[in-house]
Amino acid sequence: MRTDVNYHRILHEYLLATENEISIDSAQYKRINIYSHSMGCLPRPSRWSSLLKKYGLLLVFFAHVLRVFWVAFIGCIYALYEALVFAKQWKQLHCDQWPSVSDYILSFSYRASKIVPQFIVEDYAVITMPWEPAVTTAKNVSLCVLLDPYDIVRSYVLSIASILYMSIHGRLPWILQTFTAFRWFVAYLGISKLEGHLYIAEHYDRWAVLADVVAGQKNGRSGGGSNKLSLIQHGSLKNLAMDESFVFDISLEYRMNNVQELFVYDEYSKNIFLTYIIGKECTPKIQYFKPVISTVPMGRRDSRKILFVGHPSSELLQCAMEEYLRSFENIELYYKPHPKNPATSMVTNRTWEIIESVDVFPTVDYIVSYPSTLINEYENIGISAFLHPVHVASADLDDQIDRFKKWFDDNIRHS
Fold first, then answer.
1. Count of CB atoms within 10 A of residue 219's CB?
2. Distance between CA 55 and CA 343 in Å, rounded?
3. pLDDT tens across 128-146, in order?
4. For 43-95, how does the pLDDT look when each residue is reduced to its tens digit (9 = 90+)?
5. Which parts pass through the membrane (predicted)?
6. Residue 262 belongs to what domain range?
7. Contact at 8 Å (CB) between 335 and 312?
8. Residue 297 located in a structural domain
9. CA nearest to 106, candidates 81, 63, 141, 59
10. Backbone phi and psi for residue 384, each to the nearest 5 degrees, phi listed first
11. Is residue 132 part of a domain?
12. DSSP-assigned beta bridge partners for residue 246
């Protein structure tokens, strides 16, 4: 199946998607108290912020040099590399059967392929991305099936054009964001060929924008709404401020305008979606659900077990907590790294057991976490949590440790 390609429109929509990524990164820079431009606007600060203490000046130098040469030639070379890797995958996977269903899960993340199927009654297909792991089922259909060789070439051309497009639209400082370009364009060209009900578990990132604009174009062309878009909440929307209040601190440039069905955890989540994420003119049908997990018994039966839900931005605080707990007997600690932001060397060689598998959740008595999906999931099976901000400045570390010690004394030590 072939579709007409409006290059200018697609580039504009990619810029909208990238603006949301910039908004997300800008909020993360503020949380870790770093001026984004001093770091060359390096994308995904939560992934490398823990390296600043060890490689600060080197990282700053690398970021600025990379940005200069990205515009000159590295961006083009990287896009070509992505295209060649994808072409090899396409040769292996494109001959699979075109999905003959009307419901499609867009598996932009492993999480989506795991949680979305419970909300679908009819037969469906899971559109998997070659670069992203997914739950293995007979319903999986590779994105490659939806594409032809011309789409790969178009995606490469659009990737190169996106560098120029961002430059002339005043986004040169954030030009490194175009590392996402090829995959975004190739996914866009494939998904835009689908007709039916789309399901996503992304809230407002570049993939969410992709699904939203595709659904909007289909509905606009048909005049009767040939594509329906459902969004399923997949994680906490809460960011804990230093005063322990919950805030949503991301100022999104693009809001979701074509969501017809919204599945959320609770009233708080609904209000965040409708206030900050969903467009003012969009009125989706709201449905509530409780995220659940299956836990696995681990360790000794007679011990108290604590799970630390990890994130690179929380490592300094959580490692300080682990050092405090070392002196107590009959306590077992587990550490689960963030699936998208792997742990650094700071958390290794400690007393906790690191749970690497994304599908393994230990049976524990308590969890220690920043506002995360796992808090909701463990609370739904009766496990209480110590909640802390995702990022804690060094100056505030002692206050958070004191909070933790009091919580530990009240809930574990003297209980």
1. 17
2. 16
3. 999 998 888 889 999 999 9
4. 998 778 777 767 888 888 999 999 999 999 999 999 999 999 999 999 998 87
5. 55-81
6. 95-146+195-289
7. no
8. no
9. 141
10. -85, 165
11. yes
12. 240
What number is the average pLDDT over the span 222-226?
49
- For 164-215, give the DSSP string: HHHHHTT-GGGGGGGGGHHHHHHHHHHHTT--SEEEE---SSHHHHHHHHHH
Under DSSP, the state recorded for 359 is T
User: Considering 158, 193, 228, which residue would you say is the last residue of a domain?
Assistant: 193
> What letter does residue 332 receive in the DSSP assignment?
E
- SS3 category, 260: strand
Residue at 209: amino acid letter: V
Average pLDDT over residues 210-239: 80
According to DSSP, the residues that pair with 141 across neighbouring strands are 127
Residue 327 has, within 13 A of its CA and on its CB side, a CA count of 7
Burial class (CB in 10 A: 0-12, 13-18, 19+), 246: middle
> In the structure encoding, which two tokens stand for residue 53, read together?
């203490």
Reported as a single tens digit per residue, the pLDDT across 27-47 is 989 888 888 988 889 999 877
> What is the torsional sign of CA 20, 22, 26, 29?
positive
310 and 226, same structural domain? no
**What is the chain's mean pLDDT, rounded?**
89
SS3 annotation, 155-172: HHHHHHHHHHHHHHCCCH
Element (H, E) at 61: helix 52-69
* Alpha helices, H only, 226-291: 267-272
What's the CA gap between 57 and 66, in Å, rounded?
14
CA–CA dist 28, 342 (Å, integer):
16
Distance between CA atoms of residues 70 and 84, nearest Å: 19
Predicted confidence (pLDDT) per residue in 93-124, tens digit: 887 788 889 999 999 988 888 889 888 878 89
